[in-house]
Amino acid sequence: MFNPNRFVKTLMWGGVATAILTGCNKPANETTAADATTDKTAVVADTAVKNVAITAIVEHPALDAVRKGVIDELKDEGFTEGQNLKINFQSAQGNTATAGQIAKQFVADNPDVIVAIATPSAQSVAAATSSIPMVFSAVTDPVEAKLVSKLDGSGTNVTGASDALPYEPQIELMRQLIPDLKNVGYVYSPGEVNSTIVLKNLKDKLTPLGITVHESPAQRSTDIAMAARSIADKVDVIYTSTDNNVVSAYESLYQVANESKVPLVASDTDSVARGAVAALGVNYYDLGRETGKIVGRILKGEKPGAIPVYIPQSVDLYVSPAHATEQGITLPQSLIDKAKEVVK
To answer: Distance between CA atoms of 244 and 240, rounded to whole angstroms?
Structure first.
């Protein structure tokens, strides 16, 4: 700090020119104007508004829950929107080309962190930047999607939270609903890596059990009902993953299931309220909270490449006796009893 008494004393001894020109005799605890400026900048940097850009391939209940979870968790981490946090959310409305455009715009804006929800959006952001921290969420297999090379810390600008599920409990659920299960239908988007991975793994798991997977691709959400009808008379159950086109058009799938008396089993618990008989899956709001924790760590200074990918350790069972009746089956009481939520 400036000391007026010391300055007057310096004037009396005629050392002003030397002190100004050389600064040689500045005590260790004395602060110059330049030092004060530096200190002020550091304080501003510590309290500056953080910018977080969030994008999702489409808006539907599961992905919306992830986004809400991220924002709520950031608030608990000390980052409140409208105070020290600015959020820019953009949906690609199910269009991968739009997802690419959003990714490029986000990179041009240079936010502190980009959050990409669902595989197509995450792939678009990863292709657009190798420097801005990126946190993905609701990605089934981030390694297969080429977002990270390993799950225990990528060493790059990318980390995130996966919604990967174990397949054995899913299969057991289907067999509890249909004890003589022989044919499983699977409607999916061939352009979504997460969906094609699920198809491959289903075949790998079900074929040794003597169960055939009947696949039916649908390029767009408007094709979902037609794709379901094409296999409805061949299958005992239709299994749906977190395929974003399928989830976006779940009501049309529900209509086909009711008409054909083929039960729907989902891996997205929100789909039970929209027509599925049962679902065993992660809680997407909780997944968003875990994603928000990762974002908070990065905003506080950690490197994304040093943060392991989060993998859920538990799943929830949701059931709907009413939808079961509509689709031609009766839910076992044992499933109803252990369900986290029974949807009326």
So the answer is: 10
Residues 263, 237: contact at Cβ < 8 Å?
yes
Q: Which residue has the tokens 């030397």?
A: 18
Inter-residue contact 88 to 27 (CB < 8 Å): no
For helices 167-177 and 193-206, the axis angle rounded to 10 degrees is 60
CA angle, 214 then 217 then 218, to 5°: 140
- Chain segment 207-238, per-residue pLDDT in tens: 999 999 999 999 989 999 999 999 999 999 99
218 within 8 A of 226, measured Cβ to Cβ: yes
88 in Cβ contact with 124 (< 8 Å): no
pTM: 0.81
Which is nearest to 186 in space by CA: 218, 213, 151, 160? 213
Q: In what order do the strands lie in the sheet with 113-117?
A: 85-91, 50-56, 113-117, 134-139, 158-162
For every residue of 202-222, which 3-state class applies, written as one string? Answer: HHHHHHHHCCEEEEEECCCHH
For 3-61, write each residue's pLDDT tens digit: 444 433 343 334 433 433 344 344 434 434 334 333 333 333 446 899 999 999 999 99
φ/ψ (deg, to 5) at 259: -65, -40
Q: Looking at the chain, list the stretches that DSSP marks H as alpha helix, in order from N- to C-terminal side.
A: 4-12, 16-22, 33-47, 61-76, 96-109, 119-128, 167-177, 193-206, 224-229, 244-248, 250-260, 284-299, 321-326, 333-338
In three-state form (DSSP H/G/I as H, E/B as E, the rest C), the secondary structure along 48-84 is CCEEEEEEECCCCHHHHHHHHHHHHHHHHCCCCECCC
